Amino acid sequence: MSTQPRIAVVPGSYDPITRGHLDIVRRARGLADRVIVAVGDNTTKNYLFTQAERVRLAQASVADLAGVSAEPLSGLLVDFAAERGANVIVKGLRFAGDFDYELQMAHLNSHLRPGIETVFLPAGRQFGTISSSLLRTIAHNGGDISEFVTPEVLEAVRERVARR
Ligand code: PNS
Fold first, then answer.
1. Is the separation of the CB atoms in 16 and 88 below 8 Å?
2. Do residues 5 and 39 make contact, with C-beta atoms less than 8 angstroms apart?
3. Which of 48, 90, 144, 155 fits a disulfide with 28 by CB distance 3.0 to 4.6 angstroms?
4. With a threshold of 0.90, does the pTM exceed it?
């Protein structure tokens, strides 16, 4: 049996990171020795936070999780994973719509780097169907999102929304 540590990458935009994301990260850590939260920058998206800010918020939100770190992702996800010795990409699935997109990504990533597996975890029941974009909408309209994010993220969202 291999003695190599199992390293999982959990990629996303994390604009901002939510308790739904953190549930997936925690469960990925149950399957791997180390988990790297990879904070991507999709140029087609209009983000509330810069990539550096999203990385900082992800780092603050995973600070109490042993074996979990957060880093900016640039270039291809599979190259990022290979450079860090990661052998698995973990993605959370909330509903059928997520699956169509994620299956396409998994197939392309597997074509690019056949050795790296994608594993799908069903989103947790409690915060399973929330999304960063819905939370941004609630916050923009003065609603309370404190249940769904860490205190660091809550403060950053409040500050950002107040400035707009
Ligand atoms: O939360 P998101 O917006 O679905 O996350 C998207 C992300 C960052 C995971 C995705 O855009 C990504 O993997 N970007 C890196 C570039 C890449 O490898 N794309 C897939 C090639 S098919």
1. no
2. no
3. 90
4. yes
- Crossing angle (nearest 10°) for helices 151-163 and 132-140: 50
Angle between helices 151-163 and 51-62 (to 10 degrees): 150
- 137: number of Cβ within 10 Å: 12
Q: How far apart are the C-alpha atoms of 91 and 102, rounded to whole Å?
A: 8
pLDDT tens digits, one per residue of 108-133: 999 999 999 999 999 998 887 899 99
- HEC per residue, 35-56: EEEEECCCCCCCCCCCHHHHHH
Q: Which residues are CB-contacts of 109 (< 8 A; sequence separation ≥ 6)?
A: 77, 78, 89, 116, 118
Residues flanking ligand 1, CB < 6 Å:
11-13, 40, 42, 73, 76-77, 105, 108-109
Instruction: Report, as residue numbers or ranges, the catalytic residues.
Output: 21, 45, 94, 132
